[in-house]
């Protein structure tokens, strides 16, 4: 479960360079930032008086956030829907847009959403965003519209993201529009986003991504809430993946469509949440296998948590699922019937120390039993969770992990299990200059066949807001991929810079 020594050395060298750049930037902070005497938040010792965990911010501490109000004009923070932590970690391929730091902070904040209320505002927690161009939105009655547009140029030494890849330059664009409600009760959130990374000499490796997301929260009573969520995404498959069936030209397209209905109820100190969901995956393009991979997963879940206002709150979650493939075998002995039924169970703990530390973590087990007796059960331990730690008002750290099960049509394989985790750190040099560092690792194993894929990533980015609506973006990303499949290992470096406009 480890990357080869030479790959680790390459990743370590670039990670060290990233840390050196950040430390060098820190040393220049006094020269470029406003004078600030901020200190670390109070100790995380849980023996302290609980009332002492919430400190009153001084004028100096609160200055970066109070600057959102200038000349009597308040700049509220519009919040379109964001994907969950698990979706951000396991649903984002190398051909997809990486989630922003602020999206991760928002996703963790929504883990602590109480019944009958919206997401918890982590006042005083730096979310990785610049202050001057924080989106205000366009008010349309009781709805707020939040448009944004990014455009830039970049270069990579491995366009194909595969063994023996070639260098090339590219341009990229990213356009999004979000809609959020401004109602006293209930909540509506929508976001539509499209992006394209187009290479100058290798158009077959262009990376189009389209995502749509919506959610409606209905406050049925003070103690009962109903949520309806929907999501759609389009991207292209990774060329180095064992699942890739396109030998030439463009890789196959992947479309994911999902929906979920859930009902939450607060009963004394117990919070109950039940839900049903459906997730469909459709592949398009070249198919070397006679058995398509298109499949749909139906699930029903129930979660019980103890919401008594304590710092630590345990929870128990479980559910049942059915995975149905579009293509049935119809008596063909050479066909594998991968339709499956299964369950999962998980126990975990939520932690809420206000603006200092918040999140949850759970471990458990999941199993899918396939109808075809020739195939092993797709089963294994699962873990997921995320924490946001804010040691100072200018620094935030996130630690996240997730597990995902996926179907396959590889001969003899039951499916794959993906374990993913990352650590992110964001620092506010000034109100208009922020930087972040990210380190991530994924491990995918296929059950029934000897295929293992591992990937390590590291990146460093800077954002400078030079006006109330525009900012300059820059990022460097290093990636090391290793597979037990011969000829699939590769490394890549990518550097990009561009302009962001949002309202």
UniProtKB/TrEMBL annotation:
Organism in which the protein naturally occurs: Pseudovibrio denitrificans
Protein name: Beta-barrel porin 2
InterPro entries hit by this protein: BBP2_2 (IPR018759)
Pfam families: BBP2_2
Region (Disordered): 71-127
Signal peptide location: 1-30
Keywords: Signal
Biased composition (Polar residues): 84-96
